[in-house]
Amino acid sequence: MIANALASASSFVCGTGVQWRCDPESRAQRIYFGNHSSHLDFVIIWSALPGDARRLVRPVAGTDYWQRGVVRRYLADQVFHAVLIPRTQGLGCRCDAAKLSVGRMADEIGDRCSLIVFPEGTRRVDGEIGAFKSGLFHLSQLRPDVELIPVLLENLNRILPKGEVLPVPMLSRVIFGSPLTRVSGEGKHEFLARARAALVQLGAS
Amino acid sequence: MSSGVDTALLRLVGGVLALLVVASAIGALMHRFTRGDPGRAMVENINARIRAWWVMASVFAISVITGAVGSIALFTVISFLAMREFVTLAPTRRADHRALLWCFFAVTPVEYALIWIGWYGLFSILIPVYISIFVAIRVVLAGDTERFLERTATLQWAVMICVYFVSYVPALLMLRIPGHERQNAKLMFFLVLVVELSDVLQYIWGKAIGRRRIAPSISPNKTWAGFVGGTLSASAIGAAIWWATPFGPMTAATMAFVVTLMGFAGGLIMSAIKRDRGVKDYGSLIEGHGGILDRIDSLCFAAPVFFHLTRYFFAA
User: Fold this and answer.
1) Theoretical Cys-Cys bridge with B242: which of A119, B28, B124, B252, CB 3.0 to 4.6 Å?
2) Contact flag A15-B97 (C-beta cutoff 8 Å)
3) CB contact, 8 Å: A155 with chain B?
């Protein structure tokens, strides 16, 4: 109930218009990867999903932020079912710890859940889409069975920019793209460039 | 309302109800007898608009009948939703965030609270004087000078159009008109009815016999026939419901005419902003109509003029 109320509240505040270029009701396991410019990003993707999908989706989020305080911990565990990753080893880093985190993400979703990730690694200030870190590539290698869905978030950096606490209730848009095609034997850089291009492409139409 | 329910107000509501029934019946007939895809698409849009009119008219009628509370609450919400559509399109920058927060969460409620407590003096200058200055100060303090004038003017226009102008509709309740005490809800009804009917009638006249476009670079759908037919027929309707106002028939016609002209100009101005930003509609809140600003664009520019004319010539 808290989850439903929170989902409606956040899409109301952000006046979210949702567009689907893939089947919203699909039962397929998915990795939703979006551009990151605001704290609201994963909440908005999460609330744009249909109820059934929302209960099975797990956002990847930073442990340091979401373990602080009772409310955040409750939200992360009980409402969002977040996969919490220590920030220093998130999708960003190339060290062994990063591989470990990506491995955990791949395991945590089992054979039913989906993931929400932000492959840029951190929030952008200017509303542009930055280069993707390598985590998405490793994740896609570990779980070749899962659909990769680009999700473009528009205007959220204006609603709640980095460093601000209160949102300005402008209108936003979420576009779920069609699944990224899998190319066997594709290298890391080609894959990441292609995934980013698929995300950028959604804004052009 | 002084004693129970105002019968003139009920007659106005009844008239709108009858109009909607007729419109829906015509819409159903058109749906049945229209062949061919382009025609069907247009009929589908017309029927969507009529359905939305049912909702909008009901919300408006209920809020007017519940008196000042309902009317002020309704227009507070309208201002809020209109401003969010406006600033979504507006070229604001990150440094404007705090100024925007003030506009939404302080200016809007305070402006309407002033109507509620009936403080006309402050109501009429709060936004044009204090908020215009405050917005400029808040933006300059944020320290970002890029497109400074454009951004400041944009925020000032956002609160002027979406809050100040719109708030003139319920502000009519503040007027004290001798011999017409506690009956200003009908004045509000008169204004909104004439403006919105003028929009609808301009559309109908334009679709029926419109040929020459009046402002092709701004709004492709506005034609001379639509403009002349729409404003004149809406003025005639305004004259016909003079009994609901403090005006005589001729004055009601004149008032209605002025209001439709202002409404037409408002429609053009708001369209020009959309063209400049490269969009067709301000939003998608109201099915068939677009956003809330697409629906109230004419009302924004008609309400302040109607208020001040009425106040100058009729109020004590």
Assistant:
1) B252
2) no
3) yes
Does any CB of chain B come closer than 8 Å to the CB of residue A170? yes
A168 to B87: CB separation less than 8 angstroms, yes or no: yes
- Tokens for B106, please give them: 């302080």
Q: Using H for helix, E for strand and C for coil, what is the string for B4-20?
A: CCCHHHHHHHHHHHHHH
Interface confidence, given as ipTM, is 0.84
Residues in B touching A170 (Cβ below 8 Å): 84, 87-88
Query: Could you give the 3-state DSSP secondary structure of residue A140?
Result: helix
Q: Is B284 in contact with A17 (Cβ distance < 8 A)? A: yes
Structure tokens at A175: 């576009």
* Cβ(A59)–Cβ(A115) below 8 Å: yes
| Each residue's pLDDT tens digit, A145-156 | 999 999 999 999
Q: Distance between CA A89 and CA B55 in Å, rounded?
A: 52
Task: Show me where the domains of chain B are located.
Answer: 80-174
- Residue A116, H or E segment: strand A114-117
Q: What are the tokens at A12?
A: 């109301």
Environment class of B32 (CB within 10 Å of its CB; exposed 0-12, middle 13-18, buried 19+): exposed
Arithmetic mean of pLDDT, A141-146: 92
- Please give, rounded to a whole number of angstroms, the shortest distance from the CA of B88 to a CA of chain A: 5
* CATH code of the domain made up of A28-204: 3.40.1130.10
pLDDT interval class at B233 (50, 70, 90): very high
Nearest to B114 by CA among B127, B102, B100, B104: B127
Kindly list the domain boundaries of chain A, sorted by start residue. 28-204
Decide if B85 touches A, using CB distance below 8 A: yes
Query: Which pLDDT band, with edges at 50, 70 and 90, does B2 fall under?
Result: very low
Closest CA in chain B for residue A159: B97
Cβ–Cβ below 8 Å for A171 and B92? no
Average pLDDT, chain B: 94
Q: Residue B284: its chain A contacts at CB < 8 A? A: 17
Chain B interface, mutation test: which of A126, A170, A174, most B Cβ atoms within 10 Å? A170
Contact flag B84-A155 (C-beta cutoff 8 Å): no
CB contacts under 8 A, A 87-126 vs B, are 125
